[in-house]
Amino acid sequence: MATKLARDVYVIGVGMHRFNNERLASAAMADVAGMQALDDAGIGFPEVGALYNGYLGGGLTSGVGIAKEFGLTGIPVTHVENASATGSCAFGEAVHAVAGGRVDAAMALGFDDMNRMGGLGRSGGRRMGAEDVMLPAAFFAMWATRRMHDVGTTAETFAAIAAKNWNHARANPLAQRRADHEVTIDEVLGSTMISYPHTSMMACAAGGGAAAAIVATREVAERLSSGRPLVRVTASQQRSETYTDGHVFLGAVIGPAQMTRDTAGDAYEQAGVGPDDLDLVQVHDAFPVEELVYYELLGICGDGEGDRLVAEGATRLGGRIPFSTDGGLTARGHPGGPTGLAQIHETTLQLRHEAGARQVQRARTGLCHMAGAGSVCVVHILQRTEG
Fold first, then answer.
1. DSSP for 4-46?
2. Is the dihedral of CA 129, 194, 198, 146 positive or negative?
3. DSSP assigned state of 52
4. Alpha helices in 304-374 (DSSP H)
5. Among 20-24, 122-126, 162-166, 302-306, which stretch is predicted with the lowest mean pLDDT?
6. Contact predicate 85/372, CB 8 Å
7. Contact predicate 344/93, CB 8 Å
8. Has residue 259 got a pLDDT over 70?
């Protein structure tokens, strides 16, 4: 049973360096994101009780080195790594540090540049499996073609999801991919084929970036609010695979569908809400088949009904339940470490009603979902309350 957090936890500050493909120094981007989060919260670094750094690349001491740029305050600094879910896990550690009473305020900071990473490589000391020689694009392509066979999904449906996310990113100045025109389904379908049915405009944008979030107790949040709406973390859940009779290991990239369903169920129970209460959702949309399947696994619709949501426009801005409002991994970008924290950044702005042209009207509850190779799944639910 998912119990409520022991202490109420609130997001008091967020910051983000624009995701990009410019090979900028990760430390410089992290500094921008962290300082923005401190400024947004209205506190100095000495008030932060713990720092959780999320990154895949970089050296062993990169996180500690970046922390020194903020100040030598003696706080514990911890490196968190969990593949694509790294930033989400760093945020979860910060949340639980506050909820558990370890500190009254904690920062999660994610930074990376995929262009500077070597192969994420595996040990040569064991026999190679399929995941050693196949790129993630191939796994997602097989997932997509299986769905096309089982459900009748078309390439046009996948393209519609990607085009939606590209168009959401047009209103996000921090996105890596910002088209100067409305992207169409035909344009997405006509881009370079990567692995059928996915084209290059359906593949997530890998590059560099940084994002940060600061969480704190209710007392700290109320002291700093100055009348601004408070954003409460009502659920913070993480799972890995669960063995069942006849369990089949589906590979490190995709992981079993049940993992997301179970993690979301735990989060709904902890927050005391259900799928119908959500106003917006951010998901791990490395390829559009993921977003499509997560409509169903998160309980937004029944199994096999996600295609209908796309056709109805339910998941775009202005629709019933907008997904990937900042462009998602597809267009906002996916640098690795900061990706999950970019979701927290976007959802916090949305719940404060500070998202500008991409604002979801009357947004009060948002869900953030990330999956990580291995396989792990992280789900957070954030809710608006008045300060």
1. PPSS-EEEEEEEEEEEESS---HHHHHHHHHHHHHHHHT--GG
2. negative
3. E
4. 306-312, 328-331, 339-352
5. 122-126
6. yes
7. no
8. yes
